[in-house]
Structures are given as structure tokens and as C-alpha cells.
Amino acid sequence: MAKTIAERSARGELTRDELIDLYRLMLRIRRMEESVYQKFHEGKIGGYLHRYDGQEALVAGVIPQLRLPGDYVLCTYRDHAHALACGTEMRSIMAELLGRATGCAGGKGGSMHLINPDRGFLGGDGIVGGPVPISLGVGYALKYRGGDNICVCYFGDGAMNQGGVHEALNMVGLYKLPILYVLENNQYAMGTSVQRSTGQPDFVLKAKAHGIEGERVDGMNVLTMHEVARRAIERIRQTGEAYFLQADCYRFVGHGIGDDNTKGWMFYRTEEEVQKWRERDPILQLQKYLQEHSLISAEELDQIEQEARAEVADAIAFAENSPEPPLDSLYDHVYV
């Protein structure tokens, strides 16, 4: 770790309770993602499904530091964790996944289009690279209004090969807009590795070509992620200029439900590779850190685990007992 707990506490960064809250958030995300896998195979979730297992530190290290509402968050279709971290109730998320009227998008968005504007979460985007041009508009609006609010935009390594992404980044760098970009470099664009898809895999270098400063960060370590994001957010609030983080991470599951194991129809990873990354599980890393520094007891860990599982069970029960959207609402909120 870059700093000891004492040094962090002296700077008012992370108290014991805040560290435990980070652990609790990541565990809630993991248990929720594991449950939706089961619900999909029960035939209760339609459409497609993208899980976040292994990438929890990317949201836990950033989103809790935002001012919500006030700041804004955009992300990809792998959006369950972002919605939860922004403060969306798990009940609302689960109901949306099951296509129920009580869902955060009225049961019409599904897994890839969770949204909660009341908490500054502007939603998941089903288009590869889609959040980046939208962040340009959000960032411009924030600059126009004045103040020091920011927009955080998550997107994947595969999106960095999209033309619209670079057009937007060029304008963000030109207009100097208050946006924090978090590139979720989970090593694969669907089933294609970065090495096979990207001529220049240094994504920070690409951001700098558009006049946006940035750095690489270990996306498997929530404390490192938190510290780097803290500095980046402070910098953006002070300067009003964008900053870019290449968060190197790994998803323990497949790209989507169609290849949700290492030996699925898209056989592009080895069991050895997955296991190597699992040894750096962000949840287990933080758990070990808390235990080594005598910041949490075995009883507390068990309580947090039971609370997470109970929340998931409650969310599933709520969703399954919620009504489907009525047919006469089919065209509500549709603009042509």
C-alpha cells in the first residue's frame, strides 16, 4: 500500500468504518452478480447479461467519493455495480433485471439500461463507446452551469478503437471539461485480447494525444484505486479539466452470459490465466488487509456476509412479487 492507515487517517482519507464500507459495497456487488447468473438460467431474466465479478474495486474506489446527486456517472452495459454504488436500491435493480414495473427503468430497460437520475446515475449504454460522446455533453453542461461538479465516465478497452470515442475525447481536451474517464481495461474486448485488437495498448498515451492527462492504476486494489481517484477528482474540481485513468483489471467470468466460463463457446482464456487473476481478487485483498491490521473481526466479516446475502434474497423476492409493466405503458417514455 502507498500509505499506512495512520497516514491516511491523518489526511482524513479513510477511517476504519470507511474501509469496512468499501468492503461491504464490493461484497454486495459480488453476491448480487452471482445471484443474477442463477436467475438468468431459471429463465427469469430476459435479454442478455454482463456481470462485473472481479472489477468491483473500479466502482468502490471511485463512486463513493462523488457528490451524488450533483456529480454524474455514465457507464457501459456492464452496469449493475455502478447503479448499486450510486445508491440505487438493490430491489430496484433486481426488479429491472426481471422486467418488472418496480424496476429503476420501469421494467423496460433490463440489464444493460439501468438508470437512476435522482442519484446522478445517467445509465448504462448498450453501444460500445457510447458513454463517451454523452460525457462530452454532460461535461459541457457542467462547465456552462459553473461550479465544481464533475462527470465520471466508465468505458472499456475495446471502446478505445471506436472513432466516436476519439472525436469526443478530442473535444473534451479542447474545451477542457470536468470529466473523469475510467477505462475498464479487463484485458478483453468480448473475446478478443488487447494484444490482438489494439496496435497501441497504452490507452493513457491515446488520451494524452487529445490533451487529457492521465495515469495507469491497479484496478484490482480498491485502496490504490481510491487514492488515485481521490487525487484525480480533486484535480478536476480545482482545474475544471478532464483526467484519464487506465484501470487494469480482470473479469472472472465471461464477457456475457453466453460465454460465462473459461470453456464456453468462446474459448479464449485458459484456466491458469483466470486462476492467476483470481489470486488478486479485490474483495479478498481488502479482507486480508483489514484482518492483518486488526480492523475487523471474524464475527464482523460473517455479519457483513450474512447481510449481503439477506439483501440479495430480499431483492429477489421483491422482484419476483412485483408486477410486469402493463401493456398500455408500452409507448410511455418513447420518443420518435
Report on the architecture of this protein.
This protein has 336 residues and is an alpha/beta fold. It contains 13 helices and eight strands. Helix 2 packs antiparallel against helix 12, helix 2 crosses helix 13 and helix 6 packs parallel to helix 7. The longest helix is centred in the first third of the chain and has 26 residues. The radius of gyration is 19 Å and the shape is globular.
Q: Which helices and strands appear, and what pairs or packs with what?
A:
Blueprint: H1 5-10, H2 16-41, H3 56-60, E1 72-76, H4 80-85, H5 90-97, E2 121-125, H6 131-145, E3 151-156, H7 163-175, E4 179-185, E5 188-189, E6 192-193, H8 194-197, H9 203-209, E7 213-218, H10 222-239, E8 243-248, H11 271-278, H12 282-292, H13 298-320
Parallel strand pairs: 1-2, 1-3, 3-4, 4-8, 7-8
Antiparallel strand pairs: 5-6
Helix pairs in contact: 2-12, 2-13, 5-13, 6-7
Q: Specify the biggest β-sheet.
A: 6 strands, parallel
* Coarse structural class: alpha/beta
Uncertain segments: 5-10
The tally of helices reads: 13
Radius of gyration: 19 Å
The succession of helices and strands, N to C, reads HHHEHHEHEHEEEHHEHEHHH
Mean pLDDT: 92
- Estimate the helix proportion, in percent: 40-55%
